Amino acid sequence: MTNRRYDVVIVGSGAGGGTVAQALTPLVERGKRVLVLERGPRFRDEDFTGRELEMAPDLYVDGGGFLTADGSMTLAFGQGYGGSTIVYTGTSLIAPERVIRHWNVPGLDYADVERRSRRYVSENNVHLLPSELINDNNRLFVEGCVNAGYHAEQFPLNLRGCRGSSLCNLGCPNAAKQGTNRVQLPNAERGGVEVVTRAEVLALGDRRLQVRVSPRPAGGKGTEPEWAPGEYQVDAERVVLAAGAIGTSTILLRSRLPSLPRSVGTGFTCHPAHILVGEHPETITNDVGHPKSFFVDRAESERFVLETCMYFPFITAKNLAGFGALHSVLMHAFPRLQMILVLACDRAIPENRVTVTRAGRPVVHYRFTPEVIRAMVQATRASARIFFAAGAVRVHAPSADPPLIEAGDAGRIDQLIDQRHFQRGRISISAAHLMGGCGMGRVTDEWGRVHGLPWVRVADASLFPDSLEINPYLTVMALADRVAEGVLNG
Amino acid sequence: MPAPALDSVRPAFRAAAAAFVPETAAADAATWERLEEVVATALAARPPRLRRQILLFIRLLDLLVLARYGKRLAALDSARRSRLLQRLGASRLLLVRRGVWGLRTLVQMGWYGQPEIQQRLGYRASISGWEARQ
């Protein structure tokens, strides 16, 4: 076991960890040592090939197939230098004021979140894509929304030189997406912060971390780790946990520190999602261009959000309900498919939480409340209306039985898409907005300091006391910026 | 070489695969090998418990067919095989539904994840993005 000592150790390098790393460079200027530990690899530009099965095992924990305890929902979260910011689509929305008010965290006000978010809007080159770069998949969504009476809004995106590969979720192959791997982490390293990849935190003790650095597997993507493979004991005056909503709770729960708040792991939310497909009579541009350029926000009134999306063939196949000949026919219509992602705005409830097994593996318990099921069914109905209003000839809706609805039945959407067909284990449900577990106000104070463990701070989506109801990355950065300020101020 | 992880369940696995993705029935040996390699790799990367559960589910499925129809899943005609899997996929028991969903997902990964199959579907995403379409 090799020993190392640092003033601050940041665990995780995604939207939270990367932001904190950059914000702590003034500490390095003052002679302090700051380290980032990232469990995934540091990818090279040439590693991003856009090939689905080649990329997923390296980019996502469990290859993107991490299942909830009852096996009914897949949770996707990234790993690697940049964390999940490598695999998101770059959507950068500022948190709604009503959500921050609802969180009701004493000492945290909306103005502060908004101000910090704007800093990263500017730093990450967030802007709206010009209309000539919008593909048919997105254009049809807007057209369908207009015809069906829904208000579509354009996503601000953090891109620089997007070539429209549509491969955002497999890591941008053109270095266009301004994730922490492109902006904050390189800045931090230039400022003297050390980053060690392939470094997994096995245990957290009193101001001490046990870390395993793994070698690059034969034929694997990414560079060799910065430290020699082996086990390390890293002492740190302060630890900032930014390992994501599952990783941070897992590290804390594994630690069994005596003063650990009992509520660690509680309040997990994730915006459960379905992918819906509409088939058009003609070929459309869907697998070229930015995949997620527009959305419909019905969170406040109906607890759902609709977003444009475009996934790769296997992910698409997995998300279509059923199998066999009909499924196959729809897959062969790939160049004519329009896609919408429906997300339910779930609420933190006591049953939904992260725990760990005796071996220290994370387990996510998730119960679909009637409100979530209702929201997903309502969202599916809205999407079906939008598809048909955009000219689709048939729509695939998981909460319908049979799932294919022909245009001639568009008037019966409410009868065909129904809660009784929302059957866990039969339909694919996935989530990529993993939040909660170390809620601000519950597990930490308003500066991310863990109650009873003042040397530990949390700086990722774990801090969200309830779901955010929009894409979370900018808010993660805003809160991480706040946490870093707390560290700088001692 | 065929993936050893599936050795003990290969006939039942291939029979189920043909019901999930009908095109696999006409696949050549090399395509099957690639499919099984993908599935074996995915299984190897999953927690051991999940791996055991999937293999156990395939064995139980085969035994269920034997008990009910007096023959193995691979010997059952394709229409019956599909109907049975459809019924199990809509079972009242979450565990059974999950088993069918998990197995079908693995088969779909092995099939639709292959770049040649993706091309046949008309999937044309390219690193060059818009330039590649000009």
In words, what does this structure look like?
The complex is a heterodimer of chains A (490) and B (134). With 490 residues, chain A is of the alpha+beta class. Chain A has 2 domains: 2-125 and 169-268 and 433-488, FAD/NAD(P)-binding domain; 131-156 and 273-345 and 369-423, Cholesterol Oxidase, domain 2, CATH 3.30.410. In chain A, 27% of the residues lie in helices and 22% in strands. Chain A contains 14 helices and 24 strands. Chain A has helices at 15-23, 25-29, 52-59, 97-103, 110-123, 136-148, 184-190, 244-255, 299-302, 313-319, 325-331, 370-389, 413-416, 473-488; strands at 2-11, 34-37, 66-67, 74-75, 126-127, 153-154, 157-158, 194-196, 199-205, 208-213, 230-241, 266-269, 273-279, 294-298, 304-308, 337-344, 353-356, 362-365, 394-396, 404-406, 430-431, 435-437, 449-450, 453-458. In chain A, the strands form 6 sheets. In chain A, strands 1, 2, 8, 9, 10, 11, 23 and 24 form an 8-stranded mixed beta sheet that branches. In chain A, a hairpin with a 5-residue loop joins β17 and β18 (362-365). The radius of gyration of chain A is 22 Å and the shape is globular. Chain A starts with a strand and ends with a helix. By secondary structure, chain B is mainly alpha-helical. Chain B has one domain (4-133). Chain B has 6 helices and no strands. Chain B has helices at 10-20, 29-45, 48-69, 78-89, 94-112, 115-121. In chain B, α3 packs across α5 (94-112). The model of chain B has no long low-confidence stretch (mean pLDDT 93).
Entry keywords:
heterodimer, A: 490 residues, alpha+beta, FAD/NAD(P)-binding domain, Cholesterol Oxidase, domain 2, 2 domains, 8-stranded mixed beta sheet, 14 helices, globular, B: 134 residues, mainly alpha, 66% helix
